[in-house]
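Problem 12. The chain below contains 222 residues. Write out its predicted structure in C-alpha cell notation.
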Amino acid sequence: MLENIKAVIFDLDGSLADSMWVWTTIDMEYIKEYQLEVPPHFYTDMEGKSFTETAQYFLETFPCLPLTLEELKQDWVNRAYGKYTKEVKLKEGALEFLQMLKEKDIRTGIATSNGRQLVEEFLRANHIDTFFDTVWTSCDVCIGKPAPDVYLKAAESLQTSPENCLVFEDVPMGILAGKNAGMKVCAVEDEFSKVQEKKKRELADYYIQNYNDIQNKTYEVL
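Solution.
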C-alpha cells in the first residue's frame, strides 16, 4: 500500500477519529430542542460539505432556527468541544500507523470538512499534533468534498505530487475527493457509513477494518 507513497493525508471524522457519533448526538439535540422535522436523505445531502457549507445547509433546511450562520457554527463548536477533547478517540491502530509513517519519513497531513478549532483541539488532546506536517479544512479552500481542493492544498503544502499521496477516507464523497485529486484512496470501516460500504468499495483502491490491517498486511486491495 505504501509503495511509492511519499505523503499520507487523513480525513478526520470517521477516518482517523471515531467521532461521527458526536454530530448525530448534536443533531438529535437540535431536533429535540427546536422540534425539527428531518427531511429524507438529510445526512447524505450533507456528506462532504465543509463546516460552513453544512451550517448553511442546516439553516436552509430549518429556517425556523433563530441563529445566524456564525452563531450556529459557534454553537456547534461549543457543544462538540468537550467531546472532542475528552471523549473522541483515535481509530484502532491509528497511533501505531502514525508512528510507522514517522519512522519511514513519510509526510502526513489532514484534510477535513470539520472546523479548524475542533481539529486542532482533538489533535492536542490525543497528543498527536506533532505527527502532522500540515492541517487543512474545506473552509480554507471554500469548497467541500467531493471537490479535490482540500486534498490538493494539503499535497501542495506537503510538497508532494498527488500521484505519490495516499488518502484515508470513510465516506463516498470523501473518497471521490481523493480520487478527483489524482490520489490513491483507502476506505476506512466506520459504523456511521456502514450502509454505504458497497459504494465505498466501488470507489476506493483499498479497504481496512482498522489501521492494524496495514501493519498486519490484511488490508484489501479493491
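Discussion. Residues 69-86 form the longest helix (18 residues). Students who got a different answer should revisit the alignment rule from Section 12.3.
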